[in-house]
Amino acid sequence: MTGATQEDSFTEHYWRDPHAALAGTRETCPVREVDFEGGRTWLVTRYDDVRAGLADERLAKDWRSSLPAEERASAPPGLPAPMSHMLTSLDPPEHTRLRSLVTQAFTARRIARLRPRVEAVAGELLAALPEDEPVDLVAQYAIVLPMVVISELLGVPEIDRDEFARLSTVLIDECPEPELERASAQMATYLEGLVAAKRAAPDDALLSALISASDEGDRLSDLEIVAMAMLLLMAGHETTAVFITNSVRALVADDSARERLARPESAPSLIEELLRWLSPALNASLRFATEDLEIGGVTIPRGASVTLSTGAANRDPARFGDPDVLDPDRNTTGHLAFGYGIHRCLGAALVRLEGEVGLAALFNRFPRLRIVADPAELTYRRSVHVHAPRTLPVVLGG
Q1: Which of 79, 214, 217, 394 is the most buried (most CB within 10 A)?
Q2: Domain boundaries, the chain
Q3: What 8-state DSSP symbol labels residue 341?
Q4: In the predicted model, is pLDDT for residue 208 greater than 70?
Q5: How many Å apart are CA 186 and CA 213, to the nearest integer?
Q6: CATH number of the domain at 12-395, please?
Q7: Taking a C-beta distance cutoff of 8 angstroms, is the pair 237, 150 a contact?
Q8: pTM above 0.70, yes or no
């Protein structure tokens, strides 16, 4: 089999069954080049290598950092604005400055205070669903719950939330460059107007707090505020929506695991194991080598892009025994579902809360929930970062 054929085989296998494809690569070629996101990237799949890479300062988020100093100033950002100003595209000191402005809004203590509101939203959404006819759990629950929560946290009007969900899906899924640029421009244009409106009439939501911090001298530009809002809206609902959708598929056939959701003392350990097992974000966003470096015995040349696979790392048998088994009693310490290092997911506590509350509310209210689609007929999002069905038809009662 030729190298090209092997590569084509991996790529197609990945779109069909990413966990199996990543496992095969981790076992036979743990650091290798593949075609992802429209270009070549070095895919890293072993736990130790991925964890080390997530904290390696030689792997930059801004691709311009890999260029010679004399070329950086004139190089284009590589992503449309404001995406190029997101935390996920920045390195210190810019990353440090921007992250510090929002960290306090996402502490575990602050997020815990949201529990009553998340419970109320989940209850309202579930009460509105029919029990005896098929509903799409993705569109009518998994996406809506986190979108409502993050929109309220930021201060986005209810009327605009469906459009935000559509645009963020475009920005995260693999799509043609013109479509990506259009979606980015549309979301940015709206958010620019929202920033102006909040500046004129501030409220107690996070977006107004960011504007206030900027006005008080923290040197946050309007472009940076828009970029931060865009990132929080996208990441604030996409990860949770994928997590809830895939968790339902796992739990619907596991009575003992579902029972843990009803017990406050056991639910958190189940959520951590689901996070490890499912890895809502299968791969971290691209990094770029600022110098020649070695990963797993392979030399990565300066300027090359690197994809650190948290999904592959979380199922590495060298780190977790029987990794393909969902075991709520296992020690999940060190799982990389939220990354590691300075770029660790800012909203980890929020995802945990929404996942636990959303799943518990669903199965406590509808213990006989069943999926009514043939698994072979489900269609999946084509994304390097997430793997989830586009729709999940279920009957809640009966």
Answers
A1: 394
A2: 12-395
A3: G
A4: yes
A5: 25
A6: 1.10.630.10
A7: yes
A8: yes
